[in-house]
Amino acid sequence: MKLTPYDEFPVHQSPYPFSYIPSTDYSWDEGYYWGLFSPDTQVVLAAGMRLNPNTDMIGGYAMLNDKGRQFTLRFSRCWRRDFSLSVGPFTFKIVEPLKSMQLKLATNESGLSFDVTWEGVCPPYLQNHQLAESRGRRTTDQSRYSQAGLGEGWIKWEGREYSVRRDSWTGARDHSWGLYAERPPLGPPRSLLPPGQSTGPRRAMHLWILFRTPEFSGFLDYHETAEGKPCPGGDVFSGPFNGHIHKGWKAEEPIVLESVTRDFRYRKGTRVLDAATLTIIDRQGGRWILHFDIAALPWLPMTFGYTPGSWKDGGTFHTYHGSEELALEWDEIDTSVQPFRYEPYNVRGEGARDTFGFGIDYDKPVHGIEYMSRLTLTAPDGTVHKGAAQVEHFINGRYEPYGFE
Fold it and tell me: How far apart are CA 241 and CA 245, in angstroms?
């Protein structure tokens, strides 16, 4: 056990330093996702960082998708040698907790660099605690909060500079920690275990949205079964409908969302989302209508480092890549036509399985699941507000409401 800079603060909740995690499970981790995007230019910057104390690794990614060209830089190092929030050229600085942070990617051989400020436009939303188990063993036990925001700064790639402006770039982020699904290739092969027995109904439709307009901003999360019924829980993602709407950082209580009716439109012959309309009733009986016009084809998170084979050696950013100090690699894929063929690196068969429930089958053409969208929000008083949103949406297997088998 080693002291970390965070041990200076009176926030301990166990009788150990922060470098020690009271769980030996390789699935225990903590990390962040940040997104900044401009629907008008069809450009998105996504970055993330996760640490896994039980493998002594910290790693992350920086991804730029410009009209379908998806470039991803991945970085990794051992954690306990350096407790700073940085990995090689990437640095994350908390400017004001729960509100403002700075993300920097210094000049490096990949050709991508940036210096941006990510700033929340409303308080973060602590989502329902996520629990799942199989055969009596808890497989997910995680807290997560999500927040809408905006960005300011610059991005450079291939000699071009992108100006990130507060008035036209929208932000989305989350921060999660705890047990978060299995972590192949670190987890045991399924062939050595009896078939899994999950609790609760199986999720078929996943919807996670962060949005902002000049006046209103917020978050919502919703899941349905294959029959189109609300899915209360049972896996790493699903849970009952929840969310809130804020008027900026004003002191009044958030508007709590109670129920939702959804209407999706998909690109013909695919599961690629084209548009969505949500009719939402809040706790006070107010009726909100949110219409999302998808601005570009979705980006694919499988290049980030979460899943087996997202690194070229077949691993993830939780595994060791040959250097304790810094491992760095990058690649580019074409997402301008979807669905398309995507193959993870150096893994086949069971090792390449979709452990996160994204609905990905690598033996078939795939499509992205993260969309940038224009938003038209109609408030209960009839006023109309224009903005933008990140929409995370995918279908797992059969989904009867739209005829997916």
Answer: 14
Quick check: 130 and 237 in contact, CB under 8 A? yes
In this prediction the pTM is: 0.95
d(CA 268, CA 203) in angstroms, rounded, equals 23
For residue 69, what are the contacts with CB-CB under 8 A and spacing of at least 6? 332, 334, 335, 336
pLDDT tens digits, one per residue of 340-392? 999 899 876 555 555 556 656 777 889 999 999 999 999 999 999 999 999 99
> Residues near 30 by Cβ (< 8 Å), separated by ≥ 6?
50, 51, 176, 177, 178
Other beta carbons less than 10 A from residue 68's beta carbon: 17
**Which domains does the chain show, CATH number per domain?**
25-188+201-402 (2.40.370.10)
pLDDT for the residue 199:
67
Nearest to 223 by CA among 210, 213, 236: 236
Q: Contact, 72 vs 57, CB < 8 A? A: no
With contact defined as beta carbons under 8 Å apart, do 153 and 164 qualify? yes
What is the sign of the dihedral through the CA atoms of 163, 296, 356 and 14? Answer: positive
Name the E strands within 225-269: 242-246, 255-266
Let me know: does 205 contact 395? Beta carbons within 8 Å.
Answer: yes
Residues of the chain with pLDDT under 70: 198-199, 234, 251, 348-360
In the block, residue with structure tokens 């965070």: 6
Burial of 144-171, coded b for 16+ CB within 10 Å and e otherwise, reads: bebbbbbbbbebbbeeeebebeeeebbb
Cα 99 from Cα 362, distance rounded (Å): 38
Please list the residues that pair with 278 across neighbouring strands: 262, 290
Classify the phi-psi angles of 324: left when phi > 0, otherwise alpha if psi is within -120 to 50, otherwise beta: alpha
The pair of structure tokens assigned to 260 is 């939702």
pLDDT number for residue 60: 97
Tell me what pLDDT residue 347 has: 76
Name 275's bridge partners.
265, 293
Q: 352 near 342, Cβ under 8 Å?
A: no
CA 98: distance to chain centroid? 17
